[in-house]
Design goal:
The protein contains eleven helices and 20 strands. Helix 6 runs parallel beside helix 7. It is elongated and about 110 Å long. It is of the alpha/beta class. The protein has two domains: 174 residues, no CATH class; 304 residues, Purple Acid Phosphatase, chain A, domain 2.
């Protein structure tokens, strides 16, 4: 082999090495697609894959092609105004996805072309390293590099199969939400149908409810205060529609939401909350462990009708004290240490005692997210409302009525991908107020089956004289409480829980 041929092959090999090194270390770019900003990085790997990174939730990986190229797509920023505008102006979800797909295809083509050109230019360094003065050697390095990178990326494009995301690998917090990949294909269509169905159920249930109330009246209409307790919506838009319909039909005075309105507490999830501002009744919100400072800030921005409770508030003559879950004060999806929870519970106890002492008036309702926080405080107020474990129930403990709304979102959007029976559950609290006192007279536990759409209701009745005798205004030690009498009248439609 003569010297010229050997030199030519060295330049080609060096150009190939430099172009692949450039692709591995510098093959990144930023793109914006309809308000979503992404960082795309291309690197060499033993096995071809695509990794979607969603900070701080984790990542999703699928082996989408056979070529030794790893594609990493990182969500870096969300323009909430642009995303919301897209959702509001697009006629249907199919048009949204078609538009996004076309936009991504065009940007992917431009990205591949730019990588090929930049890799070729980087390969010109091969000539400089060998101190070449021959223009043909530079051209050979340029063309060889562009051919190599072009062939590699072209083969990746041809072999790419996005259907492999139907069986992905999860890392981080996303391990708890495997429904996120299929949600774009299946969930949005179900939301419209389910939301309409839930509104019809609410209408039919209201008619039955009126007949039931004639059989077992709670109190005279004058002075009756209705409070709708919801919890653990978990990003389910159909639940918002259902809650809105229930609030209208039953003419509730206000709504209490005891948290986990989101799944991960991200700003993007906050887009689902705008509907709450138009519910037409006061909406008291207490953050849960799946919520975050971003969700709390979003709820604060929804207007005067939405009350983010972290202290005393009075509505319709009822005094409520709400406390956010300690895990909601951080964006990290990590539970607080047991010692922190105990300290937080003790802080609530002290704040309630100070509020009662300073105002001279008792607290009617304490709202927290978790039963693990409510139970140690039992006896401190007549009524506790909470959620968290998705298990609806009404019990009494140390003289307090403990109301767990379960999951008003049927455990969230994940249930739309499943066939498991998960009820949409809400609680209707009935208070009676006259000139001298306010007391709870009953709680209606209402569930709608997420699969069959059948509904059921259980009515819990309470003797207000027993509750009154506990004297929550002055008693400091919950252990002194006695259990009030509780009557349960099950009223169910055939097939209900």
């Amino acid at each position: 082999m003569n010297t010229k041929v050997k030199r030519f092959l060295i330049i080609i090999a060096l150009a190939a090495f430099i172009s692949l090194a450039f692709l591995h270390f510098f093959g990144g770019t930023q793109i914006t697609v309809e308000g979503l900003e992404f960082q795309i990085d291309t690197s060499l790997a033993y096995r071809g894959s695509t990794q979607l990174v969603i900070p701080p939730l984790g990542s999703i990986r699928a082996y989408t092609h056979d070529t030794p190229v790893r594609l990493t797509v990182t969500l870096t920023n969300i323009n909430l105004e642009r995303v919301q505008q897209l959702l509001e102006t697009a006629p249907d979800q199919e048009e949204i996805f078609q538009h996004l797909e076309e936009d991504l295809r065009q940007r992917a083509k431009r990205y591949v072309i730019s990588l090929i050109i930049m890799s070729g230019l980087a390969a010109l360094l091969a000539g400089l390293v060998l101190r070449s003065t021959n223009i043909f050697e530079y051209m050979a390095a340029l063309l060889a590099a562009m051919a190599l990178v072009g062939s590699l990326l072209g083969a990746t494009y041809k072999d790419y199969n996005y259907h492999h995301f139907s069986n992905p690998e999860y890392e981080g917090a996303l391990k708890t939400a495997p429904w996120m990949i299929s949600i774009a294909e299946n969930t949005l269509a179900k939301i419209d149908t389910l939301g309409h169905k839930l509104q019809l159920i609410a209408q039919n249930f209201n008619e039955l409810y009126q007949q039931i109330d004639h059989l077992q009246p709670l109190q005279t209409a004058q002075g009756n205060i209705k409070v709708l307790h919801v919890s653990d919506i978990h990003n389910n838009p159909a639940a918002i529609e259902y809650i809105d319909r229930m609030a209208q039909l039953f003419a509730v005075n206000f709504i209490i939401d005891t948290g986990d309105i989101s799944d991960f507490g991200t700003p993007l999830e906050g887009l689902l909350l705008d509907r709450i501002a138009n519910l037409g009744v006061p909406y008291v919100f207490v953050a849960g462990n799946h919520d975050s400072p971003d969700i709390i800030n979003k709820m604060n921005s929804l207007g005067p009708n939405v009350i983010v409770s972290d202290g005393p508030v009075e509505i319709s003559g009822l005094r409520i004290m709400g406390y956010h879950d300690p895990a909601s004060v951080t964006a990290h999806l990590t539970p607080p240490a047991p010692g922190e929870v105990e300290g937080y519970i003790e802080e609530i106890r002290q704040r309630v005692a100070e509020e009662v002492k300073s105002s001279g008036r008792p607290i009617d309702i304490i709202a927290v997210h978790s039963p693990y926080m409510a139970r140690p405080l039992a006896g401190l107020a007549p009524v506790f409302v909470f959620g968290h474990n998705h298990q609806y129930e009404v019990t009494t403990d140390k003289g307090s009525v403990m109301v767990n709304a379960g999951s008003s979102g049927a455990s969230g959007l994940a249930t739309l991908q499943e066939t498991q029976r998960r009820p949409y559950s809400v609680m209707m609290l009935h208070f009676f107020k006259d000139n001298s006192e306010t007391y709870l007279v009953g709680v209606d536990a209402i569930q709608v089956d997420s699969i069959t759409a059948e509904f059921s209701m259980q009515r819990h009745l309470f003797d207000h004289m027993d509750l009154k005798s506990l004297n929550f205004k002055t008693r400091q030690n919950p252990e002194e409480a006695e259990e009030p009498n509780d009557g349960l009248l099950p009223l169910e439609r055939e097939g209900g829980d």
